[in-house]
Amino acid sequence: MESINAIGRRKAAVARVFLTDGKGNITVNNRDYREYFSSxxxxxxVTQPLVLLNASDQYDIKVNLDGGGVKGQAEALxxxxxxxxxxxxxxxxxxxxxNGFLTRDPREVERKKPGQPKARxxxxxxxx
Length: 128
Prior knowledge:
This protein has about 130 residues and is α+β, with helices and mostly antiparallel strands. The chain has one domain (about 5-100): Ribosomal Protein S5, domain 2 (2-Layer Sandwich), CATH 3.30.230. About 35% of the residues lie in helices and about 25% in strands. The chain has a 5-stranded mixed β-sheet. Helix 2 runs parallel beside helix 3. The longest helix has 19 residues, at about 70-90. The radius of gyration is 18 Å and the shape is elongated. The model has no long low-confidence stretch (mean pLDDT about 95).
């Protein structure tokens, strides 16, 4: 099997995923994913689609992660892995979709408006 490419995004984070047959190694920016994501919660988020499909030891995954924070990167990677697994086998789609792994979270940071300290917060109003 040749390499399968997929992209996952979340907030400002972009994950480019390259999935090949292998033993279950996940490499993020040339580091093991357990080293890159030190939090157990983020490690769990990254491996959710693989655990759900019992494919943890079938594929090697190489990832280029860029932008955003740690949580956004972990969720972008989850989306990228899910999309790659669907490209390999269309029968995976209903299971991943039911768990919400194929939905791109559209929430982004709202821009700051002029004449205000933040996006929605206003300066204090003084009548007199």
